[in-house]
Amino acid sequence: MNFDLNEHLARLINDAGGKAEEVAGRPPCLRVSSTDWDLSVRVAVKADLRFLAVWASQEKTGFSIHAAFSQKEKGYALMTMQLDAGQDEFPSMVPYYVSSARMERVIHDMFGLIPVGHPDLRNWIKHEHWPDKTYPLRKDFPVATVMPRQEGFYPFIEMDGEGTHEIPVGPVHAGIIEPGHFRFIAVGERILNLEERLGYVHKGIEKSMEERDVFSASRLAARISGDATVAHSWAFCLAAEQAAGIGVPPRATILRAVLCERERIANHIGDIGAICNDVAWSFMHVQCQILRENLARLHGSLFGHRLMMDCVTPGGVTCNLDAEGIKSLLEQTQEVAREMNKLFQIYEDQTSIRERVIGSGTVDFENARDMGLLGYVGRSTECDIDARRDAAYAPYDKIPPAVKTCRGGDVSARLWIRFEEIQESANLIDKLLTEIPQGPIQEAWQIPKEGDGGFSAVESWRGEIATWIRFGANGKIDRSYVRDPSMINWMGLELAVRETVVPDFPLSNKSFNCSYSGHDL
Amino acid sequence: MNLWICNILESIFLIGLAPLGGMALKKMKARLQNRRGPGFFQSYRDIAKLFSKEPILPNQASWIFRLAPYVIFIVTALAVLIVPVVLIPLPLSAAADVITLVGLLSIARFFTALGAMDTGTAFGGMGSSREMTLSALAEPAMLMGVFVLSMAAQSTDLSTMVAVMLKGNLGLQPSLVFALAAMLIVATAETGRIPVDNPATHLELTMVHEAMILEYSGRYLALIEWANQIKLLLFATLIINLFFPWGIAIEVSGASLLVGVMAWILKLLTLFGLLALMETTMAKMRIFRVPEVLGLAFLLAILGMLTHYILEVSV
What DSSP state is assigned to residue A81? Predict the structure, then answer.
């Protein structure tokens, strides 16, 4: 992990009259006082730092608020402030970083801390029927609590203009997808506003992480969002290894990257097909399904799991590859990349699908940058963000990916980026597997000291995953925070569908393909 | 008397075969996409399953919601009675002409929309509003398209029209090409096929016809689904027999009826094959493009009519 930005940010804060103290612990971070928090965030936004996440943790006395920032090759910065005992207010970041809004609402829900200056403190993850004054992430809340139902109310944004109507969709949908509620305000078929209401798949992952040992926790991390299981477990393991101060054998890091790139290819292919299917172009859907199924089957036979779940564990990987396996993996990757190239040509020539995707669900560059949209959503509108390059974790420090961006920010641009990334991932797998060294694939786990932790950013196929862990006594997890890219990209979707027509929503939604589970935790 | 029996038998034949026809189309699509597809009798099994299930009614539903499926089915079945399938002349098509046919179909549509709005859900209203917008454009185009043929045949009675077309002594008729093009577009829209609507979608927000029947279940859904399959076959038969009537039986005898049935099946499969090919290679269009396309159908029908007057009417 590249933490060079810490120093840069500390200098900026100190220049601006604040006081930021660099702490070279695990992970390295900046400590600012709660009175300097607002100033520090203002300095960060002025310096064009990208905001990753804001989260809270409970200390022996009082609470801490943490935030993470990044700036391309300069890497990442962590900022922390400790609230005094009994202090339950902290300055909100929303005036500077809009995408912190939902994260601060989660802090408000889960810890009962109040972000002062936050414009919208309705529940977010906390269900409206939960009792008041229940703060699940506080230490005095037992993990096995059965929450009684207490009738509550969630006020949606209302509009009473002439001719406007509301269309409530979900949380249970007609197709087999995850649950989430969408509230459209429309005039005829035109969408004036979309309001998302998520949280229906809240499983209490953050709470459940606490008091687990590292292996059990990494299995849970693999299940945060099943389609990005490799990336999530990798992010967790990187942070845990940072805390324990252990390295990973080179062969294992290469294998991790191979798994992650394969996951990227499989998901991109599946989604390209699904996007086309949403506008009833079933040809592409079926072709993509065949390819994706072939990938999954090979994963099943080589790694024992079609999605490669639990292959990445703290200290290394569980599955090794023999020469035969490397060969079949290489051959299939090349074959799939060639097939996708052909399908891309067909897609480019198909006017009826091009007509649908061009100009649908557009996010412009300014908005995308301000929100910090991640993954292909950001890269399709010139936001050059890729944690593989920016965080430079092994093996991408030696074998960096060629990050592509494009203009447009519509469904067509997102599709293009994903077609391109399939090719780039195939290239990477080729490079990785030809350079794979012999050697062990697992490093012995060492129990980290109490209070040590780690922070990692891993580029999943959906975008950057940020994970922060802190260990407590006996190697048990004290607090674990995960920011799935969906946490930010869901906001982009609200913006993308504004002023488009209602029947185009599924297409835009699919092209974002945010995770409900990763968002709701 | 024989003709009357034949007329009724013919309609029962088409109504009974409708689920199979729908499945044949599905199978063709599946084959084109490298899939095996469901079994040929799956739609019969589906209908049987739905009939044996208890229908669940929304709390807000009134008697209109329960009545609508019956009206839809009966009206569609009545429409079948006046369309020649394998035999002309049909006594009932003399009783009700093509304008009645369009009228019957619009009654079915009216009740579908009414049933959908009755529950007060957002999707029902959304589907109804879309369906009505589209049908307001599709109906005149269909009438115009049929009128081109009516003018050549100097009748709006379907049996007579088919008979005149069958004699084929009209010479070269460019107007028919226009009319055929118009009818094909209208038929795609009316039966809710790609690129206008996607019959296989599960995305609530893009649906047109499916959004209207989202709240139906059990026997009500079975009736609507069946009526929909009948409608598909009805439109296909109409196009086949009006524009390519060769082989249709003109007398009640075993041999000619057999030829009639064979010819009908063959032409139907050809038409479905083309439809399957189109549905596989095309994406659904944006909803606001559909009115333009239906406008085009209307324009084509008008052109057909003009061509008929300018080139084909002997003074």
Answer: E
ipTM, two decimals, is 0.86
Contact predicate A54/A67, CB 8 Å: yes
pTM for this prediction: 0.90
Give the tens place of pLDDT for each residue, A25-83. Answer: 888 889 998 888 988 999 999 999 999 999 999 988 889 999 999 998 888 999 999 98
Q: Report how many domains make up chain B.
A: 1
B193 interface with A at CB cutoff 8 Å: no
Q: A236 and A467 in contact (C-beta within 8 Å)?
A: yes
A187 to chain B: nearest residue by CA? B126
Q: Which residues pair with A466 in a beta bridge?
A: A457, A483
Q: Which residue ranges make up each domain of chain A?
A: 5-116, 205-520
CB–CB of A174 and B280 under 8 A?
no
Domain coverage including residue B81 = 2-312
Cβ contact, residue pair B283, A355, below 8 Å: yes
Domains A5-116 and A205-520 share a fold: no
**Omega of the bond leading into A136 within 30 degrees of 0 (cis):** no
Task: State the pLDDT confidence band at A300, using cuts at 50, 70 and 90.
Answer: very high
Please report which helix (H) or strand (E) contains residue A352, including its range. Answer: helix A351-357
Nearest CA in chain B to A285: B33
Interface test with A, best of B205, B212, B289 (most A CBs within 10 A): B205
**What CATH number labels A205-520?**
1.10.645.10
| Residues counted in chain B | 315
Q: Which fold has domain A5-116?
A: Beta Polymerase; domain 2 (3.30.460)
